[in-house]
Write a structure and sequence with these properties.
Blueprint (H helix, E strand, L loop, with lengths): L4 E5 L9 H7 L5 E7 L11 H20 L4 E5 L2 H12 L3 E5 L4 H16 L3 E5 L21 H10 L39 H6 L4 H15 L3 H4 L12 H5 L5 H9 L5 H19 L22 H9 L5 H13 L4 H14 L4 H11 L7 H10 L14 H8 L4 H7 L11 H17 L6
Parallel strand pairs: 1-2, 1-4, 2-3, 4-5
Length: about 450
């Protein structure tokens, strides 16, 4: 009787360069792919709305591709540990493979499950698939983790080069047992009433094939102008690979080695470095989405939240054209240009004096590329409370940013042309002074700020 190998898929929704899947194919037993929608395990953050939409379509694409190779994708919902053990029992599996995760709750789940399955006599292996370098491998000379990007990235580059991408499995042996699988439609990952995902459907095609196509297009058509135009939101020269990496439709190894040989890709590769830095920071500071990385910011005098101003920011009705354009692009497409993300975040935190955590929660719900490392890391960077953060007194002036990076208002006119005729809900100069005054009050109660 066959003794299948279960490959537990998580944020690695691909066939190429998937170490767990490749190892299973080489084991000589039937393979079962398993995805668990875990919304119950303590500490696991529930997906936002845009992420749920992407997951539906990426899983559907992956199920079709795996099916062509004779590998069923079993969908189950519930606490991951219980579900995996259930599938092991139902299938009489003798091995469980997965690629590593780096959030604290996820690592705890994986460690406990690995221990219990091994005690039950199963072969359990985990693999490196989501980061170029494991977080415990990049250390300062004193053996601690890095808090500043430049020396962190320099240390990464001094390590052996990231491994080459692994091949797609050639074939899988045997016929795995038929197992009950949820109908993905029953997970209700897509919105129904109202259906707000029209812009997402027009903008994106989730799944590994489209991810591979986008990487090739970027490297052949766009990368030459990337460094020069990447800060111009109307230029359309960003890679658009962030959701592909977030969902693991592409591995960072594939992106790295595809780009490393091309001229003029240094700045782009450094963006992969920032992604690494965010995940390494989360590994060492698991409460990144809820606690200030710099404890001194716990004393920041946030005023009571002005709900009307928060809502105006969320809906792109602030009367500040670049901010409004970004927020409307976000709501329509599940994406926002990186330069505009910084401007919109700075406006919320420093002009409206609204806690960065509320902005992080909104982005978590509306971005297709929001992950548990980069999203809070970037918000804390803007707020000044994070690793290698922008100084709090650096307040992005959205009018000057628009003049510099959208001088002809092409981006603003596409997304929020009416905002050019609307008065801002706050005075930028007055609110900047108020933000700096609040920062000074915090400094008087903190000793570790310059």
């Amino acid at each position: 009787m066959p003794s299948p190998t279960i490959v537990w898929l998580r944020d690695d929704l691909r066939i190429a360069d998937n170490p767990a899947l490749l190892a299973a194919s080489r084991r000589g037993e039937p393979t079962i792919a398993l995805y668990v929608l875990d919304e119950e395990s303590p500490g696991v953050r529930a997906l936002g709305g845009a992420a749920r939409w992407w997951l539906h379509h990426s899983l559907s694409s992956l199920a079709e591709r795996l099916g062509e190779k004779g590998v069923p994708l079993v969908l189950r919902r519930g606490p991951a540990s219980r579900v995996v053990e259930d599938v092991v029992r139902e299938s009489s599996a003798s091995a469980v493979y997965w690629n590593r995760r780096y959030g604290a709750a996820e690592r705890e789940i994986d460690a406990a499950l690995k221990s219990s399955l091994r005690e039950a006599g199963l072969l359990v292996e985990s693999f490196s698939a989501s980061l170029l370098h494991e977080p415990w491998m990049v250390r300062t000379g004193g053996g601690t983790h890095f808090s500043v990007f430049t020396p962190f990235w320099r240390a990464c580059q001094a390590l052996p080069a990231p491994r080459r991408p692994l091949p797609e499995p050639d074939d899988f042996v045997g016929i795995p047992p038929a197992l009950e699988s949820d109908d993905i439609a029953g997970w209700a990952l897509r919105p129904s009433s109202p259906d707000w995902a029209g812009g997402l459907r027009e903008t994106w095609t989730p799944g590994e094939p489209a991810a591979i196509d986008r990487l090739a297009q970027f490297l052949t058509e766009d990368v030459d102008d990337y460094e020069r135009t990447r800060d111009e939101p109307a230029a359309g020269m960003t890679s658009l690979l962030s959701p592909r990496l977030r969902w693991g439709e592409l591995s960072p190894f594939t992106v790295w080695h595809s780009a490393a040989g091309a001229p003029g890709t240094g700045k782009f590769l450094a963006e992969l470095g920032w992604r690494e830095f965010a995940w390494h920071t989360l590994f060492h500071f698991p409460d990144l989405a809820t606690r200030n990385l710099r404890p001194s910011f716990d004393a920041f005098p946030w005023p009571p939240v002005d709900v009307e101003q928060l809502t105006a920011w969320q809906q792109g009705r602030t009367g500040v054209p670049l901010v409004d354009a970004g927020m409307r692009e976000l709501w329509s497409t599940g994406f926002m240009h990186n330069r505009v993300r910084m401007v919109a975040a700075s406006f919320l935190v420093k002009n409206l004096l609204i806690d960065w955590r509320l902005g992080e929660e909104w982005f978590w719900d509306t971005l297709v590329d929001a992950d548990e490392a980069s999203n809070p890391f970037n918000w804390q960077w803007v707020a000044g409370s994070g690793a290698d953060a922008a100084p709090y007194f650096r307040v992005f002036n959205p009018e000057l940013q628009a003049k510099k990076f959208d001088p002809q208002s092409r981006y603003v006119e596409r997304w929020a042309g009416d905002s050019l005729l609307t008065a801002p809900i706050v005075d930028l100069g007055t609110t900047r002074k108020a933000a700096l005054a609040a920062y000074e009050r915090m400094k008087r109660t903190s000793a570790d700020l310059p």
